[in-house]
Give the backbone structure.
Amino acid sequence: MKLWSNLQMVISFKPAASVEVSGKGKRTYQMIYEEIAHLSPCIRRMNATHQIGCSSDFNGNTGVLHLIEEDADIDWLNVNGSYSPYIAFFSAAGCSTVVSNIEKLLATKKISGILVDHSNRTRNDIIDDESFRYSSDRSCPNDNFVTQDSLIIFSTYQKLTIYFKNRETSVAKEYMSLLRNQDGLVIFPTYQKFIFKIDSLSPFSLFNASFRSSILFFCRPLQWNRPRQLLVGHVEPHGTGSNFEVDFGVPVLALTSESEVEFIKECYYNHNHPDDTEAEYPLCAMELKDFMHGVKDTPTCMWRTQRTSNLEISSYCDPIGDKNVWGFAKNSDNSSSYKSVILAASPLDATSLFYGLFPRVGAESVVTSFVPLLAAAEAIGKISQKEKDTWEHDVMFALFNTESYDYSGSSRMVYDMMRGYFPTSKETIKKEEKEKKKRLPQMNVTDISYVLELRQLGLSNGTYYAHVDPISQADEGTKKKTDDLIKILQGVGPVEVNTVPADIPLPPASFQQFLKTGINIPGVVLTDHEREYNNRFYNSRYDFPYDLGVDKDNKTEVLYLAKKLNKVAETVAKTLVSLAGGDESSVKTDVTTVNDLLFCFLVNANCSLFRSLQQKADVHISPIAIDLYPGVWQSDTQGSILTTRLLAYFLGEKTAMNETDKDDCSKPDDSEVYTYHYAIGPEMNPDKGICIKSTVHITAAVSPAFIDDEHTKPDWASTKYSTWTQSQWSRHPSASEYF
Amino acid sequence: MPSLERMKNPEKLELCRKYFIIGCFALPFMWFINFVWFFKEGFMRPTYDEQKQIRKYLIWSLIGAILWTIVIITWVTIFQLKRVEWGQTGDRLSLVIPKGML
């Protein structure tokens, strides 16, 4: 399906002029329909209980075009519109980001599809308005998780809902008696569910430690992805959850070409626009095709997918997932080196409501998180092996993938560590017992001495914040080590790092998954925000470099953002070295690298840095930014492949090698400790290639709910782990206009 | 199919009996064809020796075919109405699962 999707990208990014109109005369179809070339669909995803997103009917949805420029146009449709069904076209983007508007529109029952104008001008208008915020992620990202078997905690807008799976357990009984006496509490006895308004109680005083911890895990009492004060005129323009909670029931497509948007608008004004009375036939109409195979929920569609029938092979959906990329600084095959590591982590993926969208999203959500981490890896990679061998700890760099979908990547690594499968599965170890293959030693969560995670660092005013987990601070030893870590962070420079008040919970982070094991690990999540996100567009279609000032093609100039992030990277690198037991004073990050990384990920992947890591000089790389959506589990994305090479290049041992000898750059038969990559090298000269030997590896970033091996069976209805799947589709989504 | 007109009466009885027996192997359409094909022989023609037995086979064939039809129609109706509600069981009973719908 990924192949198909890539194909779709190629098709839709062809310039409009080359749409097949041969000189020999048009086909009838082309004379009736005007195909829209630049679009990006909202697709269907499923979790344990619901289907989310969009789909058209099998043959597509048709409707009369209705332009929505202001809220009143929705009311007009509801009261006057008599040519039902309609295709609503949101030309004012602000209007379409308000969930209540979409709900109102769908409630008219006169809608068979929705188009959203995401062309340059509208996009930039909206971003220039500094009071505007929008996110298609939830107000508490990655929030619907379980801490204890007996209860499930769900939070939505200003509400906290607690479900008891089994109300007969002693834990459930205890909580229920506590909860019954609360103000603002609604009890649904049959559903074993409690709902109460967050503002009406202070959870901290009420409950015992373990219950308090579950509340703190769930970003209570702070909603990270939501401004503190609602802005006038914007009802709910933030943390809408539309990508995770809304099933639209109709196809929704984003249009990205300005000329096509104008073309559709013109058609509307010439034929459909009501003056005093409703316009008459012929009317301008649209047909939207975006048919999805999966339906209902993950258990249903996964079961259908794995069912074998001898008549046909059908698949309906695939788990969302990619690869975690990780590697060690010491580059050593001495197994004792892996018994006490510092985990330096960041997320690697981003998402938005629309699939394969342009411009690429995730600029502040993730790129500003992992770029400083990669730059720090480069600085540490330059330290001599001899010096690194004297360190007390090793540093493990880990880029977690598919984190937007309920921590799939980090929860998988933790799960594998806990069951003794990381980095190698028990089956593989057993199989290779006789061969005496050398491998990286198995790692456990207890082997991690410290965690330093980077999350959203681009929108700082010069100060950064070190978030800690208030729950594990109750443990003396953990608190002391955390304080040491913060002291180093604050002491090494060059950036200013502040602590946050003790009643602020740990923000959404991969670190949460490590803490969820109950093992106290001292650690810090470094961010550019103290409380709510600075990012106005977290995991949404507006999270592209505009806000960060990277929309330039001129790459010779060092960006202001690069200078800022370089300083953070230096602080991070120095902290890691100092913590590991080395001398941090001479550690220096390279601002050119940060600048190159930003340019390559956010503007043009066909850049010299990425090209130098390919095997040949003439490899084709699309000259566009990288799509950081993790996609489905079968295929590795361009993002994770390139990041693997980058991390190996930064951390690994590089030896000069001719292109003709590149077969020598491969693993020996008796060892899996190192990975080998041949690259053409920065000079792009086949005679001056390099062989990179590193401990950088990739492992599955697919939720533990989908594991199917000797010891574990899949649990598609899991309440503990992410269950997100993506529906398949067979024809590429399209939109066309006709009369 | 041989022409009945050219057959002798005992042969007709034998053929009718064979059709009935084959129909017993869950082939109601066989019974139905048996009934239609031999209808003239069994009920319209003047009496002959084997007619009584042919009639017996035809009546049982008809009853069987009707019962089968009732059973099939009932099952199809229930299946169509309840397939979605049965969830996974419903899917298991389906040969082809539709895409994009329950």
Summary: Chain B touches chain A through eleven residues (CB under 8 Å). The longest helix of chain B spans residues 51-86. Residues 20 and 60 of chain B are 8 Å apart (CA to CA). Chain B has four helices and no strands.
